[in-house]
Amino acid sequence: MSTLVHSVRLLGAASIDPAARDSWALFDEGRVAAIGTGGDLPPADETIDGAGGCLVPGFIDIHGHGAAGASFDDGPDAVRLGRALHRAHGTTRAVLSLVTASVDDLAVRAAMVADLCESDDTILGSHLEGPFLDAGHKGAHTESLLRAPDAASVDRLLEAGRGTIRQVTLAPELPGADAAIRRFVGAGVAVAVGHTDADAATAHRAFDAGATLLTHAFNAMPGIHHRAPGPVIAALRDDRVILEIIADGVHVDLDVIATVFAVAGGRVALITDAMAAAGASDGHYSLGGLAVQVVDGVARLEDGGAIAGSTLTQDEALRRVVAAGIALPVAVTALTSTPARAIGRPDLGTLGLGSIADAVLLDTELRVQRVWVAGRSA
């Protein structure tokens, strides 16, 4: 069935002025079949008046752990439940983040995600957030399971993922990290520096070895000091690197986020890092076997109080950064084409002619009105 959405600002299509308010897009056979501004509208089986809102590419989350009371580590049913919640908030495709576990358990979970990828192409693969992390910056990861990377463990995980591991976070100061980075990158995995005590020089070395991401910038790593710039400055200074940001106003101050956008707007990927409480009530949860309490939408470990993921959705992240002064087209790019590029999927995150028709219709308050996945209403 073909669908025409008209009377909108159309973002994510290079040939269309994003400021124009009379733009339209036609979806047919899962693709963007036509786009334009004003003039005669093409016929369609379904016609939707966007009422002056925005039509944007479907959001892509490359770092999230769950939602709706479910954690992605817990199997296919939990994945389906969490994905449905995020899809309703505009996230049409996602990488499933898996928290630190034993290599054996992570291999099983990576294989589970690989199986899901075969039947659901909105699941883009897995993100291994651990176990190759620094204990001093472990955040909500079980310290006893953290370890330095070794060739056998890296190969075991790659084999289990069957080509579907899209991202791995590791601390580059750990023994064996340089070799692990090269092995992962050689297998097509985007390596992210994160949960680390690395200084700027160590981060630069990791980027030279092939790392191209910074996991939730500012969180679980040294901050910026005028005599010790740390990994954030190293990433900001390197055009090869994309910086993840959790824009919930808790993990990073919104003025700091606006500053990052001012320096590297095209290299910011807005992620949720959402855990099971996203879209669910406050209360007690578990993340990677650790007890978490959620109060007023903020998740913290019961032991020690460290922030334990977020309860964010990507549409809320969009509203927050726009309210902080980020131009809407720049903010949308950080939710769409930039995260797609970060994991080697430049075919996603766009509404250009012929692209996959993943789209979100937003009203004038940037609230989600409709979601399409490959041209079908989700």
Automatic annotation (TrEMBL):
Zn(2+) binds at residues 129, 195, 216. The active site is at residue 273. The keyword Metal-binding applies. This is N-acetylglucosamine-6-phosphate deacetylase. Residues 55-376 form the Amidohydrolase-related domain. Its cofactor is a divalent metal cation. The lineage of its organism: Bacteria, Bacillati, Actinomycetota, Actinomycetes, Micrococcales. It holds the Pfam family Amidohydro_1. Keywords: Carbohydrate metabolism, Hydrolase, Metal-binding. Binds 1 divalent metal cation per subunit. GO terms for molecular function: metal ion binding; N-acetylglucosamine-6-phosphate deacetylase activity. It comes from the Bacteria. Its EC number is 3.5.1.25. One of its GO terms (biological process) is N-acetylglucosamine catabolic process.
